[in-house]
Specification:
- The protein is 34% helix and 27% strand.
- The strands form 4 sheets. A 9-stranded mixed β-sheet has the order 5-4-6-7-1-8-13-12-11, with helices on both faces. It has a 3-stranded mixed β-sheet with strand order 3-2-14. A 3-stranded antiparallel β-sheet has the order 15-16-17, covered by helices on one side.
- The structure holds coenzyme A.
- Coenzyme A binds next to helix 2 and helix 6.
């Protein structure tokens, strides 16, 4: 059977962040609550001229530069922080990247899970048409109300992946385990900028979904626990992944091995939650920060989107994978960022896009090549510098 999976992947993160130590100081609480209690260090913050489209284009452009656009016939854009109720954000990205016109572009939503649906659909499409390539993008701005328990778990980033036959990075196994249940652990009505949520309840449902999807994965012929050498989790905050991994190991009767999941948390601690992109940032983090050669190793992945839909699946790392990573570029993005003060953070947080259709020009602030140059007549004006 033809192997199908991820040929290359990259991420983008805005260049501003607030350190959680700064947030802790403002709230007068022990910074250890954030660094150890939830396992986070920084919250990435987009500027006025950055959003899910510009981050997505930045993440995807490097893949197009290195692997070309030929054969890309589908763009699947996964997000829960969409910028339009009707038009897919992927259409802007399609134009910014100069992708072929004979291509479809759609947006997928199911909280933090939708990129996994996109990846599985991309694999299905390539199975039917092995010459096709699919650009899967996950891009989100995770924003919670200030002064709530969710505030330290904000963040922003985009991950782009090229999916094709005989991939160079990771072959995705066809066996998966799924779980859907109608619950209200986190949701965002159309009229709200920020979600309503019950973090503790959500964490419990997440842990239950780990086991539920694992059982279904096993029932569908998935790999044994001991055959998976690394685990990647959706990380609303990195301690969630630690708890999930212990929970799964216990259920599988294995000795908890924190190291099997820890490489996947390195980037998340520096970025914060990035919703749909989170699991895939964890996968990049695992591949780029693991000291071990992961060639031929099998990795387990757990995707969770509140509401809720979850999936456990797996894949095998392909020989030569290290040559296809963007380790130096990503390290550079993470290291060369500017810390903002608490007041700088509130300024970025409070900013809202104009709603009256007037023309607004935004000065260039982002460090990327794509930006939101302004608004006019209720339209968002994206440019490539
Ligand atoms: N040093 C070290 N650890 C500390 C600490 C300190 N000074 N103070 C508190 N902690 C620990 C607590 O013991 C707790 O650990 P535990 O989880 O092992 O019990 C942890 O820090 C969190 O503190 P707690 O007071 O229990 O939680 P909170 O009310 O601040 O809320 C979340 C934490 C994660 C629930 C909250 O940030 C949240 O709701 N985030 C949104 C997550 C979400 O909904 N995601 C969407 C679904 S995936």
């Amino acid at each position: 059977m033809t192997k199908i999976g991820i040929d290359a992947m990259s991420f983008y993160v805005p260049h501003r962040y607030i350190a959680l130590s700064e947030l802790a100081e403002h709230h007068g609480i022990d910074p250890g609550k954030f660094s150890r209690g939830i396992g986070q260090e920084k919250i990435a913050m987009p500027g006025a001229d950055e959003d899910i489209v510009t981050m997505a284009a930045e993440a995807a452009q490097v893949l197009i530069d290195d692997h070309g656009a030929e054969g890309i016939d589908t763009v699947l854009f996964a997000t829960e922080t969409g910028i339009d109720q009707s038009k897919a954000a992927g259409i802007y990205v399609h134009r910014l990247l100069n992708l072929p016109e004979n291509c479809r572009a759609v947006e997928l939503k199911q909280a933090c899970y939708s990129a996994t649906a996109a990846l599985q659909m991309a694999c299905g499409h390539v199975a039917r048409k092995p010459t096709a390539r699919v650009l899967v993008i996950a891009s989100d701005v995770a924003r919670y109300d200030r002064d709530t328990s969710g505030e330290p778990t904000q963040g922003a980033a985009a991950v782009a992946m090229l999916v094709c036959a005989n991939p160079g990075l990771m072959e995705i196994d066809p066996e998966t385990g799924c779980h859907t249940e109608d619950i209200m652990d986190f949701w965002r009505p159309n009229y709200r900028r920020t979600p309503l949520f019950d973090g503790k309840y959500s964490a419990l449902r997440y842990l239950d979904a780990v086991l539920s999807t694992w059982r279904d994965y096993q029932a569908n012929g998935g790999r044994r626990y001991e055959d998976l050498t690394r685990f990647c989790y959706h990380l609303p905050f990195s301690r969630m992944g630690e708890k999930a991994h212990r929970h799964l190991a216990k259920h599988a009767g294995a000795k908890p091995d924190a190291a099997a999941a820890s490489d996947g948390m390195t980037y998340a601690r520096q970025v914060g939650n990035c919703y749909a992109a989170s699991l895939y940032l964890s996968l990049i983090s695992t591949l780029e920060t693991s000291q071990d050669d992961l060639t031929d190793q099998a990795i387990g992945l757990f995707s969770y989107g509140s509401g809720a839909v979850a999936e456990f699946f797996s894949g095998r790392i392909v020989a030569g994978y290290r040559d296809r990573l963007y380790t130096a570029r990503h390290a550079d993005l993470l290291q060369h960022r500017d810390a903002v003060s608490y007041s700088g953070y509130t300024e970025l947080w409070e900013r809202v896009d104009p709603r009256d259709g007037t023309a607004v020009t935004l000065p260039k602030q982002s460090r990327g090549q794509f930006r939101l140059a302004g608004f006019n007549e209720h339209q968002r004006l994206y440019v490539k510098d």
